[in-house]
Design brief:
CATH superfamily: ANL, N-terminal domain
Distance between the termini: 30 Å
Shape: globular
Oligomer: single chain
CATH topology: Rossmann fold
Length: about 220
């Protein structure tokens, strides 16, 4: 079995091909991360969590980011250090520029292109764009979660690392419109296991989403009933 969920990001079938692609359909921003680039971002973020926030196995972490490539990076990073992704009663919160968090440890992203820092440091928050990039590209932690450790505890989904690693693999390139974190958990793991890819579309209208799907040679994901 893969040692941790995060190993999946570096072992997609075509590691130099896109694993995560992000569109802001209102501004035209497009960001593409290969499997290797995703793994580098995850390692940096996991090192930040470990070194600066003392995150460890069982630490409760809430991801309040909107549908964005950083949301997927933070899911994988949480699992790398053994943190549990939750919606309530978290110690660490990750949010966007709305700074909507009152947890003890607060981290925020300006959600600017390339993940750059806030123009002015957000009071009371760690700035992802200022803090994360300087950390190593390889995770330096020594304590790894076991298959039986919890990975998520979200409404409608409570799962261990082993549970998520049992997700059926999906080789498709899927377009996702805005949605909740719980939706992205299974789709991200399935894509990593199956050599697939996720295209996150934020904003725009259905026609813009369809155009993005055609451009990316992808299928718009629809939930199964």
């Amino acid at each position: 079995m893969t040692r941790t969920l995060v190993d999946l990001a570096a072992h997609v079938d075509r590691p130099t091909s896109p694993l995560v692609t992000y569109y802001d359909l209102d501004t035209g921003e497009r960001v593409e991360l290969s499997g290797v680039t995703t793994a580098n971002w995850v390692a940096k973020t996991a090192n930040f969590l470990n070194d600066e926030l003392d995150a460890e196995i069982g630490t409760r972490l809430r991801i309040g980011l909107p549908s964005h490539w950083l949301r997927l990076v933070w899911l994988l990073s949480a699992w790398q250090v053994g943190a549990v992704v939750v919606q309530h009663d978290a110690r660490i919160a990750v949010t966007g520029p709305d700074l909507a968090a009152d947890e003890p440890d607060r981290v925020a992203s300006a959600l600017l292109p390339f993940g750059v820092r806030f123009p002015q440091p957000p009071a009371g928050f760690w700035d992802i764009g200022a803090e994360v990039p300087g950390h190593p590209d390889l995770y330096l932690g020594t304590n790894f979660p076991s298959p039986d450790d919890a990975a998520v505890d979200l409404p409608g989904l409570a799962a261990t690392h082993a549970d998520l690693l049992a997700t059926p693999p999906d080789p498709r390139r899927l377009v996702l419109t805005e949605g909740e974190v719980v939706r992205d958990v299974g789709l991200l793991v399935a894509a990593c296991l199956g050599g697939g890819s996720l295209v996150l579309c934020r904003g725009g209208d259905p026609e813009a989403v369809e155009r993005a799907a055609v451009q990316e040679q992808a299928t718009v994901w629809t939930p199964t009933v």
